[in-house]
Design brief:
The chain is an alpha/beta fold. It folds into 2 domains: 145 residues, NAD(P)-binding Rossmann-like Domain (Rossmann fold, 3-Layer(aba) Sandwich), CATH 3.40.50.720; 166 residues, Dihydrodipicolinate Reductase, domain 2, CATH 3.30.360.10. It is globular, with a radius of gyration of 20 Å. Its EC number is 1.1.1.18.
Amino acid sequence: MVSDLKVAVLGVGMMGSYHATTLSSLVRGATVTVVNDFSAERAAEVAAATGARVVDDPFAAIADPDVDAVVIATPGAAHEAQVLACLDRGIPVLCEKPLTTSIDTAYAVVKAEAALGRSLIQVGFMRRFDAEYAALRELIAKGGLGDPLLVHCTHRNPDVPPHFNSEMMIRDSVVHEVDVIRFLLDEEITSVQVTRGRPTPSAPEGVSDPMMVTFTTEGGRIATDEIFVRTGVAYEVRTEVVGSQGSAFIGLDQNMLVKSTDGRWGGSITPGFVERFGQAYVTELQRWVAAATEGTIDGPGAWDGYAAVAVCEAGVEAVLTGETVAVQMGPRP
């Protein structure tokens, strides 16, 4: 009999507490043994709900003998040191995006893992585990659309906090489409351009919401992303790939469209990311647990996290300058 993977969850805010609950109730083969958060009250609440212990120091939590693997959902500025501590101990880690908050530190993490000769870092790009995205990638890989030429993405939120500015729209929202584009096309993004148009009245002063982001890939393909995070409607994420021999569109499968005899038509839209990608999170964690039990990962790795950081850095510069900005990336170890 193989014993459960003993997991520490660092950072139990919205995302971390969701992961802890999912690991405890919906994922086979895992036990949350340790939780850590800067809020002692929040850590105690999650620990009580999952049967875990609270460890006040995140590095003590990583080093705890009752921990086999770590989920990191702390603020991005803490990720570098915590991920490196997991590497030092030689245990698998699932790190929510971003991998780190700068290109240089992300690349340093990539090189540190490469020096170990083992894949221990997985980055939490959950859309790769969504059934629709997985099917679309397979369709493209098998040549079902011919040569994929264009990718069109839409990312809309009903609302975000007032401090969520144009830069955060790139780093925290568009980052998902960055990984989707790389995942679907299996090539790197080489440049980013951002068009800032008329903002919605609900946007704070100086914030460009919505924006249109245009990416060019190393193969000369073009991808676009409409980012609009204050629609006042619901959570909408859609992707279309247009190829030389057809096109495919995902994002409405879970939202039934109804036409009635009185001439009305409509449906429902998922109110938030959990409703839209809940199963993808479960699948992500289940596959990570199975891989971590064998001492490795099963999903986007450190290089994918680094690439996303590099593209978003170029995206932020594009927001500020209005120029098309080249993505700067080092060689893959």
